[in-house]
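Lecture 7 notes: from sequence to structure.

We start with a single chain of 431 residues. Read the sequence below before looking at the structure.
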Amino acid sequence: MKYRYTKYTGDLLDEIDLEDLVSRLSDLFLSSGFSNPWGDPSASDEDRTMQALHDAILEALFSGGVLSDEALQRLLGEPADGDQEAARQQIEDLIQQIIERMMERGFVTSAPDLNEERQWREGAGAGQGEDSGRVTFEVTDKALDFLGYRALRDLLGSIGRSSAGRHDTRHLATGVEAVAAPKPYEFGDTMNLDPSSTILNAVRRLTGSGVILGGHSDPFTIDVDYPDLMVAQSEYQSSCATVIMLDCSHSMILYGEDRFTPAKRVALALAHLIRTQYPGDSLHAVLFHDSAEEIPLKQLGRVRVGPYYTNTREGLRLARRILERQKKDMRQIVMVTDGKPSALTRADGQIYKNAFGLDPYIVAETFAEVNACQKAGIMINTFMLARDPDLVAFVRRVAAICRGKAYFTTPYTLGQYVLMDYMNRKTKTIH
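Now the structure, written as tokens:
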């Protein structure tokens, strides 16, 4: 019996790095409504449809470098064959397999069809729901956490940092890891005794008082007194409470540029950095637009641009209240914005708005809140995504009041500035 051997080509699906593909789809998964900037982005789901996912995967396969040239040739077939219908069907089958694999791995889930369920309950028939609306998908917490990790890795790699430790200062404390000479124990120090130095002090005290040790076979004891105690010193490692304030007013997706999606990506990277490298730190997220609200970190990747105005004062006030509850060595606000303050919440709850921005009343109240943050010991670091001269002057005054920093950056360099500032500031002296 003769055997015929052919070259093993394998399955195209096995050649795709699914995690790399998910990273390339991050703009779709973290989209903020940029696909429909002139409508209501918070109510739009055009970029959450299965068709949008299908198109994004198709683009990644052919222009994102996900498949090798050899795999692409196998997928498309030989042009001379002329069987383009079979090639298209093979591409569609591969994309469907990729979507199913992403669901199996827990990166995306199919959104429940509430219209179909509602019609079924009302007796209108379950078959009408599928035709009446578009099939959508939802991004899972696992996918958002993974995108935060990838964003952090890419950002740290681009600035020459492969890892980050805790926040070191020049102060010494009585901790666990000894890095300096022992010192006499003082009330309030951690009881991290240095045994050799403590016993040596006791021996010196006894011999200096005329007590003779040794010279006979009887056991003897060394009485350790309070002045003999010596404790090991370690580097003082500070802790920090941070509130990241994201401007989600409508201008963040207007004028031909999506500024909010990069801001969300940086916030996810910062959250992953704090959770994995600085477990003693805390991070909270505040969105500000017509008003302001705190959101859970796990929802950060899903939020979209909100109403139109920029209520900077309300965002600062909410951030200050959050930080005042934190018992940390350092407390700071990281504010990412591209617009001038254009809204203010009055004492009666009404929102005063001025679309032109830098209204004297709004600016005065905003500066009053900045002064309140300064008195509470809270630093405000502002990352500006615009170059308006009046706005530059406003941001510089905010930095001067609270002794913070003002960074004028772009959506492409925002992540490097934010992460470098966060890590470098922890090396400063803490008083």
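The radius of gyration is 30 Å. Keep this in mind for problem set 3.
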